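Reviewers of the previous submission asked for a worked example of the structure-prediction workflow described in the proposal, so we include one complete record here. The input consisted solely of the amino acid sequence. No template or homolog information was supplied to the procedure at any stage.
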Amino acid sequence: MKTIALLFFLACSLSTFAQGDYQLNQAIDFFRTNKMVNGEIKNMISEKDIEGSPYLNPEFIKGDVYTSSKVKFVEIPLRYNIYNDEMQFQSPDGKVAAIAAPEIIEKVTFGDYTMEYIPFISAKKIRRGFFKLVVKGNATLYARPNIEYRQPVPPGAYKEPEPARFLEKTDSYYIRIGMDAAQKIESKSDLENVFPDHAKEVANFIKKNKVNQRKEDKLKALVEYYNSLQ
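From that input alone, the workflow returned the following structure tokens.
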């Protein structure tokens, strides 16, 4: 599938903003065509003849887009491409486009999902990406969806060929303190280190409640406990 990248523009006057939420036919005026995304192989992969899905939600779900300038666009058909880490929308004429300036997004809500575009630490560098919101507070818990792309396997002497495929992996979990970059939680020591101001209380809570860094409900309980200490 060919994906067109659109630049998400804000051109909202105070008088218009005061009228409240926007409908889709009003919001569409704030999109402007931009050049197609290129240069990265992940954006060159066609979904044709690939088994599995790269999407969090294969079908478009109508949702709302909140921007950092406090503008809300409503009833926009949205879906999230995990593999490309891009939020896509469908225009009234049926074209599929990706928001090319996600840094202006405060949050996106659609279906049961609330997603935020935030900074996070990866390979000792600060990057930005979309995360599912789990718990919001001074400490915020996020889940990062993961998809693996496997190349097709040619036939062998005693082996049938295998098509290319997308394989859904388990979510990764990140914790963000205040406005700092989110940190990936991969071990119990990561959990203790991310809360240095209440290290003793957090360590006791982890031990008492048998908190597992791979269990969302346990991480949620821990983050909510930490926030109650503030």
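Helices lie at 14-17, 24-27, 188-193, 199-209, 216-228. We consider this example representative of the routine output the project will generate in years two and three.
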